[in-house]
Amino acid sequence: MSDPEVEATLVNSGSVWLWVIKKCPFCGVEHVHGGGNIKGDPRKLLGSRSAHCNANSVGGYILVEQLPSSVKEKRRKSYYTANVRNLIEALSS
Ligand SMILES: [Zn+2]
User: Whole domain around residue 37: which residue ranges?
Assistant: First the structure.
């Protein structure tokens, strides 16, 4: 089974970035992962991470940036637009 994706919110803690997961897919509680120095790029630290659960190692998950809902909506729209265009092309060829 591949690791689940979890959405993390970027938090500026002053000297370092933090990636905060509101609800862990394994244990359901909040976890905080380091995002590196505040002058660095925290997105480099997204991706596969081991879960910070209290229980003994349950595995890992893929950290993805939680985008504002307006951005998500825009992406969803363009996704469907692309699909419709492909469908039209397939039908007309
Ligand atoms: Zn957990």
Answer: 5-66
Closest by Cα among 45, 48, 49 to 17 = 45
CA of 22 to the centre of ligand 1 (A): 10
CA separation for the pair 21, 1 (Å, rounded)? 21
pTM across the whole model: 0.70
What does the pLDDT average to over 74-79?
74
Q: How far is the CA of 57 from the centre of ligand 1 (A)?
A: 9
56 vs 25: CA distance, rounded Å: 15
- Tally of domains in the chain: 1
Judge whether 21 lies within some domain: yes
Ligand 1 center to residue 55 CA distance, Å?
8
What separation in Å is there between the alpha carbon of 77 and the centre of ligand 1?
Answer: 32
